[in-house]
Amino acid sequence: MAMIHGSKHSRKAEIIVALDEPSLGDAQRLMDRLAGHADFYKVGLQLFTAAGSAALDAVKARGARVFLDLKLHDIPNTVASAVRSAVDLGVDMCTIHLSGGPEMAAAAVAAAGGSTAILGVTVLTSSNQATLEACGVHGSVGEQVMRLASMGRAAGVRGFVASALELPMLRAELGHDPLLVIPGVRPAGADVGDQKRTATPTEVVAEGADYLVVGRPISRAPDPAAAYDAILGEIKELEI
Fold this sequence. Notes:
The protein is α/β, with parallel strands linked by helices. The chain has a single domain (10-236), classed as Aldolase class I (TIM Barrel), CATH 3.20.20.70. The chain has helices spanning 24-33, 45-51, 53-61, 76-88, 102-112, 129-134, 141-154, 167-174, 201-206, 216-219, 224-236; strands at residues 14-18, 40-44, 65-72, 93-97, 117-121, 159-161, 179-182, 211-214. It has an 8-stranded parallel barrel, surrounded by 6 helices. Strand 6 (159-161), helix 8 and strand 7 form a beta-alpha-beta unit. Helix 1 (24-33) packs parallel to helix 3, helix 4 (76-88) runs parallel beside helix 5 and helix 7 runs parallel beside helix 8 (167-174).
């Protein structure tokens, strides 16, 4: 886990590579190209639906850590059962969607038992003000992020997923302790795709992120290892 050393510029952040691939074979080929470079991978809905726990096994077989990003959102008992299954599968981090409410969040934390970090998803990086309004949520994106994060913290959640735009307010409100995982990270000049709230690696690290989730800028690069190393070089420049 990354630590704070007194300055927002001294935070030591890590890269999680998103295995947003259509098949296990595609994911394995990407990890092979990143061998000796990346050591933490995200398995999300697309790959987990295609390959199931075999995707997690493939990551662990390479000695890497697993971030299972399924954004669990169901009744508390069902989410707790799913979290226990994730723990049994050796997952290092697992997401729940905080819109499931405090009882669901507390059930997930209890089921994790400290061996798997539970991360509460606030507002998706593909969402913006219009998205929230269409779903009947009034107020700004930042207000909704803080509302959900505060609720999650009260329920025992100690890690959160949000966009880089909400990083400063999360750190100001929650302090240095919570683990903050930031998706939608794009190097300067990169295509933002379907993301609406993005930032560069240096911006994210400067504001206190623990982990940067990076997908297409690495996975779709002609040389994924070189792309990974370039991003790593950017963030290491901020370390003290």
